[in-house]
UniProtKB/TrEMBL annotation:
This is HTH CENPB-type domain-containing protein. Residues 56-127 form the HTH CENPB-type domain. It holds the Pfam family HTH_Tnp_Tc5. It comes from the Eukaryota.
Amino acid sequence: MKRRKSYTAAFKLNAVKYRDLHGTLAAANHFGVTEAMVRKWVGDRRNLQEMPAMKRARRYKKPSVEEVEYAVHDWIVKKREENRAVTVKEIRTKAKELAEEHGHQNFKASAHWCHLFMARKKLSVRRRTSVGQPLPPEHLQKCSDFRKFVAAEALNVSPFNLGNIDEVPVPFDIVYERTVDVKGRENIKIDSTGHEKSNFTVVSGVTAAGEKLKPVIILRRS
């Protein structure tokens, strides 16, 4: 049986650069590899650029209990479809629970296992992002019609009498979710004044002539 050859990240990147200049077939012949390998490396260009030059294939240790990993992955996907948060600790706890159900009493859902599991399943810890309101299917036509309407109505109006305003809620206390701290410390606490959910509103405006209006601050009545 022919032994599979391993190539460094630097070798693969050189092949990718050669391909950019001379084409896939020429790169394959020049470096003694197949065209399929060159195409695969081209698709993995960004990952190769982030890897150490002498690092070889990105292989991960085969899991000892694959059925457990499949079950854990399905559990994660289901929770995320419900927009529920999933932590690394919950993954390890669930993996231990499912492993025992599958008869793997000695399975250790260690932090190292969880790291490799997430790499194999292409998972990572992400920050929550805001979700905007979906636009209706005909929004482009509505925008076009509105622009035409405004242009027609503004023909005989002075640009100093046309303007645009925006209201922005500003919290009294801005709470940071990340901070620099000693490596290895488990509990990272950041104190606040307790008013991070209390806001005031800032109104800013500008006229069509380019005149910036004085900002207005609106405080909520107690």
